[in-house]
Amino acid sequence: MAMPVHRNGNLSAAPWQEFVLEGFGGDVETQALLFAVFLLLYTVTVLGNLTMIVLITMDARLHSPMYFFLKSLSFVDLCYSSVIAPNAMANFLSASKVITFAGCAIQFFFFSLLATTEAFLLAVMAYDRFVAICSPLRYPVTMSPMTCARLVLGTYCGGCLNSIVQTSLTFQLPFCRSNRINHFFCDVPPLLQIACANTVVNELVMFGICGLIIVSTTLVVLVSYGYITVTILSMRSGSGRHKLFSTCGSHMTAVSLFYGTLFVMYAQPGAVASMEQGKVVSVFYTLVIPMLNPLIYSLRNQDVKKALQRLGQRHSLGKGDTRYGTGSWG
What we know:
The chain is mostly helical.
């Protein structure tokens, strides 16, 4: 339980009721600039991921396992950036920058759940491409709608399990040194820094679980794309090879960005001590990557581009029908 300190240095019997998120520091102008940057990143993230979700939902030609997983990825990106960004932006404009003890625990729980879910989901997407390209005749049976739903549910279950372990281990620690968190959201490394108990077990669990998740999912991705590369290179059609490499290249770009930043932050010794580096890295995986994912998948994917064009044409036709009273959307 977190314990406050009296002015004389003695511990109080009452627990801390709140933490202070110090963020990036700086004067009022710096905080206003950070607010503007976060607002821009978050707005593009929301618009991009909502567009992908609506597009895949409305366009029947995108009702396939690959786009079902992509829609799930957009939903996860939208949610876990929303767990962090609004509170961070509010703190940039606030003098107190306070978050309650319970609010801190809830924020970390959902952040950990969604970030872990995304790690597993990226591995599932690689497996989906492996089956589609290497075993196309078995693909409709192997990746049936029920199987796809179970795989996505499994990613959430894995994320929930990791989040329960990390949250329970972290928030049972006594925080009697300070209630000031050297970060812009509640995360394990800065919380361990203000704990007044031995955190070796917590650090080992964090490095162990995060390292296991990153290594295992990375192996799934590498093995899947190893087989995919061999299969694509054996194809005679140059246009087919180009299309498949383009699609798989988008996924590999997203995987490299996400796993790379997670490894730097959580799965290497010394990550807990380098908080200034951690803040910058955290901006990448909480806002920049969720913002880039829709762009990566749409700019390099012809099916998504064509679906956007069809959606634009339907919208234009709908406006025309409304203007002249000749029809309406159902």
